[in-house]
Amino acid sequence: MNIALWIIAALMAVALLSGGVLKLTLSKEKLAAAPGGGWTEDFGAGAIKAIGAVEVLAAVGLVLPAVLGIAPVLVPLAAVGVALLMVGAMITHLRRHENRVIVVNLAYLALALFVAWGRFGPQSFIG
Fold this sequence. Notes:
The protein is mainly α. It is built from five helices and no strands. It has one domain (2-120). The chain has helices at 2-25, 28-33, 45-68, 74-95, 99-120.
């Protein structure tokens, strides 16, 4: 189970890091033109950059504390943060009737909750 948690956390970190970097570097117009980018119409450029920064921080929080052995309790906390981020994304997509994208958010939500459960519970770094 420990290996599965590491793999899932690492894959989620890669996905969040790439999405966050795109949100931080691309303009709102370029993001809106991408497939599934319609949600950007509901947010200002600053809010999109803030979401990107949160995604980058979540990516770092899912892996780095455990790798360095410094405050590894941050890993499940980052996973809870990702779960909350995905709930917000699902609400946004629901309001916009973008049902296909919600499936992806739901998958990320499930993976984040699994990592949070595993790292708070049976495979905790503390204990």
